[in-house]
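Input sequence (168 aa), recorded before submission:
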Amino acid sequence: MKNSYVCNDEVQISSGGKSKPMPAKRVNIVSVRLVKEASILYKNRRVGSPSDGYKIFKEFLEDLDREAFIVLSLDNKNQPVSINLAHLGNINSSIVSMPCIMRAAILSNAASIMVAHNHPSGDVEPSSSDRTTTLRLVEVCELMGINFLDHLIIGHDSYVSLREEGFI
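Predicted structure, token format:
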């Protein structure tokens, strides 16, 4: 089967000397937008440490009965721009994809991101999956030109920073 393109916006398909006109392919014109669902006031204005990030994240993660993965997008001055729930998992895991994590950061024109997820058990010890996800995020952020600040794991009234642990 051989394709030949014709200037009249029809594609002709030749098969055994016979031609059959094909209708033009419809291409959707789309736009991608970030939709503000709500807002919160952040008194400190800047995120200067993992504990500052924890103060924001704990509001969303501390009391959940399943794992959730949240992305905090920040501007050049480390001021929060947006918070996005990238994935909601089950009681002991949250499988995340890099596009889902990066989508809101890109649409928010983030200079930096900080991510966090909770462990409903309360144990903030990072799993091997947590460490693997963090390393992948560092690589993806580097490729995208976005600074990766930290990955926090939130438990009951506690957290661990993979940056403070020396993992990043």
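Checked by second reader. The radius of gyration is 23 Å.
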